[in-house]
Amino acid sequence: MRTITFFNNKGGVGKTTTVYHLAWMLSELGVKTIAIDLDPQSNLTSMFLTESRLQEVYESNALSTILDAITPIVNGDPAVPAHIEPINDNLGVILGNLALSTFEDTLSDAWLKCLNQENYSFKITSIFKTIIEEATQRFGAEVALIDVGPNLGAINRAITISSDYIIMPVASDLFSLQGIKNLGKTLGIWKGQWNLRKAHRPSNLSFRIPENDAVPAGYIIMQYSAKENRPVKSYLKWGNRIPNVYREFVLGLSSEYGPTIEGDTNCIALLKHYRSLAPMSMEAHKPIFLLRPADGAIGAHLYAVQKCYEEFKDLTIKILERCPDVANN
């Protein structure tokens, strides 16, 4: 089992779309997977669910979202297993909730009070680990993919310390470089702060707390333009600065002699922008690489669908190699 969080301090880089397609490709490859929407904007949820199902979930009193699993624990009541929305035999989704953002203050307060050796505060800080472990075991998942919002708040802090791996989807622009710097520095701070709190944990804890062993597994360059199968000059201008920035701020290594983007082993992939196929995918509620002529993918579109399948299959295999199964801590 491995828990992989996709995180970037900058929004709008295609992070959610990538998680969605990776989850589908893992299921295509026969890997049992749970996709977990922990971004309060809940865009991943809306990609998986039809409009009628979305309405059913959010207008009914059914306990269907991540918040319904969090609330009992916060209130001190018996835990309620998170609902797993079945997509197919190999793929399930834990649905997001816009009200998840209201949980930030509770997590912030618990983070501070962990230093007072309070059991309840450790329980709240460990809440995502508790929910994810139970859900993956129940579903028999080999991989959990987590989509988070583009911020450095308490929710994302609790998620990252509970993750096995962190992958950064980035764009080739100035703001993505700044996002890598911000996130890299912050991950280091969070790790140190949680290690301090672990040293203060009560001896009588009856639940597992995060071990804080998240490994930066690399980055994915999103939505680049290409000419003759090579990135265009405007993308290389910023792209070639990413390897040094990632090495220095995320890995804590010297960046003086960093490679170009095409030679950087930390770069998992460069994903193309599939432009006109994106709205087709949204309307069909299926990933781009599973679009069929009946969905409107004909002619050149069908060729692009086939290329997309090859690219995401290659990306998915690379991620599985970079993020090997880990023993439960």
Description of the structure:
With 329 residues, the protein is α/β, with parallel strands linked by helices. The chain has a single domain, classed as Rossmann fold (3-Layer(aba) Sandwich), CATH 3.40.50.300. Helix content is 44%, strand content 16%. An eight-stranded mixed β-sheet has the order 3-4-2-5-1-6-7-10, with helices on both faces. Strand 6, helix 9 and strand 7 form a beta-alpha-beta unit. The radius of gyration is 20 Å and the shape is globular. The termini are close together.
How many domains comprise the coordinates?
1
CATH topology: Rossmann fold
Oligomeric state: single chain
| Proportion in helices | 40-55%
Q: Given the helix and strand composition, which structural class is it? A: alpha/beta
Question: Rough shape?
Answer: globular
Under CATH, the homologous superfamily reads P-loop containing nucleotide triphosphate hydrolases
CATH class: Alpha Beta
Strand element count: 10
Give me some keywords for this one.
alpha/beta; 13 helices; eight-stranded mixed sheet; 44% helix; two-stranded antiparallel sheet; 329 residues; Rossmann fold
What's the short story on this structure?
With 329 residues, the protein is α/β, with parallel strands linked by helices. The chain contains 13 helices and ten strands. It has a single domain, classed as 3-Layer(aba) Sandwich (Rossmann fold).
SSE map:
Blueprint: E1 2-6, H1 15-28, E2 33-38, H2 43-48, H3 51-59, H4 66-74, E3 85-88, E4 91-94, H5 104-113, H6 119-125, H7 127-139, E5 143-148, H8 154-160, E6 165-170, H9 174-198, E7 215-224, E8 226-227, E9 230-231, H10 233-239, H11 242-249, E10 267-272, H12 277-284, H13 300-322
Parallel strand pairs: 1-5, 1-6, 2-4, 2-5, 6-7, 7-10
Antiparallel strand pairs: 3-4, 8-9
Helix pairs in contact: 1-13, 5-6, 9-11
